[in-house]
Design a protein that fits this description.
This protein is an alpha/beta fold. Helix content is 35%, strand content 20%. A hairpin with a 2-residue loop joins strand 6 (146-152) and strand 7 (155-161).
Length: 594
Amino acid sequence: MAQLRIALAQVNPTVGELDGNADLIVEWSRRAADAGAHLVAFPEMMLTGYPVEDLALRASFVEACRRALDRLARRLADEGLGGLPVVTGYLDRRSVGLVRPGQPAGAPLDAAAWLHGGEVLVRSAKHHLPNYGVFDEYRVFVRGDRLPVVRVHGVDVATVICEDLWQDGGPVSVTSTSGAGLLLSINASPYERNKDDVRLDLCAERAREAGCALAYVNMVGGQDELVFDGDSVIVGPDGTPLARAPQFVEHLLVADLALPAADASAEPGRTPVDAPDGTTITIDRHVLTPDPLPAYPVLPQTAAEPMDDLAEIYAALVLGTRDYVRKNGFRSVVLGLSGGIDSALVATIASDAIGPENVHAVLLPSRYSSEGSVVDAEDLVKRQGINSRIVPIADMVEAFEKHLDLHGLAAENLQARIRANVWMGLSNEHGHLVLTGGNKSELATGYSTLYGDSAGGFAPIKDVFKLTVWDLARWRNTQAGVDLPFLHPFGHEPIPEAIIVKEPSAELRPGQRDRDTLPEYNVLDPVLADYVERDMGREALIKAGHDPALVDRAIRLVDLAEYKRRQYPPGPKITPKNFGRDRRLPITNAWRER
C-alpha cells in the first residue's frame, strides 16, 4: 500500500471572473501545500464558475479561459507551488479535426486539467453531458472520451467530471480496468432538498464499481437560481465514508489515504477500452512521481455531521441570497414589510445573509391594513435592528382613484402596484436590491399582483411552499443564540410569534384572508408538489388520494399563471423542480388536464 494526502478545495468561484477565480486556486493551493497535501483538487469549471451557459459558445470567452489556465500553471510555479499537482475544472475547446459528425473542431468542452511544474500536464473533458432539470450541457458542449490516469507518489489517480458519476457507462465503468487506486471526481452539483444523502449513496456505489477509493469535491456558493452546497466526501473502495466536508461553507478537506501502489509495469500511453454505453473510452496514462512516499504520521480523519432538513434549506436560502447580492455588486437590500409571515422570513434571511444594518424595510400601510400588522412589523424591525421607514399609501391610492374607475380585483391590485413603485423608487435612489416576498404556493397559483408584490430583483423564498415558510420561521426562532456560520448572532427570537400564528392575508380589501381565494395550504401544498414537481396528471393526482375538486381547481390555477411566473425574479432553487430553469412550459398553451 502507498499513502497519499489529498486536499479537496471546496470553494466559491464567480462566473466569468477568471482572474479572481485563479486567485482562489492559488490561495487554496497554498493552504493545501501548507497542510502537506500531495494533491489538491478544485471543483468542475472552477476557473470560469458554473454554469457558464451560452458563454461557452463565445469564442472570445473560451480563448480567454484557455489563456488564463496557462497563466495559472505558470503562476503556481512562480509562487513556489509548482511541485504540488493541482486538478481544476475549466472551459476548453476541441482542438483536433472532426472526430464524429456534428462535433467540429473548436467545439466547447467542460474540461479538467492537471497543473504541475508550471505547465498544463493533462487535459480531459466530461463524457456524460446532462440534458435534464437545470442542465442543458448537451446544447453547449461536446463530450470527452478519455479517462486520464496520473501516477502521483506511486498511486494511480483517475479523474472524472460530475455527471460521469451519475450515468452508467463511460469513464467510471473503465476505471477498474485502469487499475487506479483512487477515482477523483470534480463537481458542480447544485443543492436540492435531501440531495446530500443521494450523493453519498452514489459515491459509495461508484467506488464499489470502480474497485477503488473515491474523492468527490463539490463547489459551494450561489449562482443566480442555483446554490452549491459543497458536502465534499471521500469514501473507501467498499463505499464506507472516510471524510466529509461541511455544507454551505468554503472548506479544505484534507485526508490521508492508504491506497494500492500503482503497477510499475503500466507504462505511460493510451489504451482504448470499450465502455458499456456504446462508446470507447481511452485510458490516458501519465507518470508524475512514480515512487511511493515513505510512511508518515496519518492525520485524524474529519467527518462533518450532516445538517437537519430545515437547517439545510435555510442555509441554502441564506447563501443564495448573500451571493446574489455580493456577486452582482449590491451592498444593501430593500423590501416591503407587511407584518405577514412571508416578508418576515425574507427580512430574516436577508439579515442573516448580509447583516441587518444592510437591510431596509418599508412599511406601507393602506386603508385595509390592520393595526396588528403594523405593530408586528415594527416589532420585527426592533428585534433584528434593520433599517425601516413608514410610507402610508392611502393618499396615493386615492390620487389614482380620482382618475381611474377601478373595482374589485383591479382596485386591490392598484394598492400592490403602488407599493412596488415605492420600493422600486427607493431602490433607484439608494442602490438597494429589491427583494420579492412571494412563496412557491403563491407563484404556483398566481396569487400575486404582476408589477406589484411580484416586482423586484431577487426572490429568496420563491421555491419554498407556504407550509415550509412557517416551518422555517419556527426553526429560525429556535436557533436564537446558536453559533452557526450562516446565522446572524441574534440573542433572541428574530420573528415575533404574533406573525407566525397570524392567519395569512394580502389585506387588500376589508377582512380579506388567503383562504377566501385559495384552498387551505395544508391540502393545497401537497397537490402543488405532486403536480409541479412530480409532473403528475389529473388521474394520477386523484389516484394519489387528492380530492378531485381540489385537483381540478389547483390545476386550473397553476396552468393559468404561467405568464406571471415567466416574469418573476430569480430565487434560490431548493426543490427537485423550481419555477425557472427546471420547469419550462409554454405561456400560450391550449392543453388542459381533463
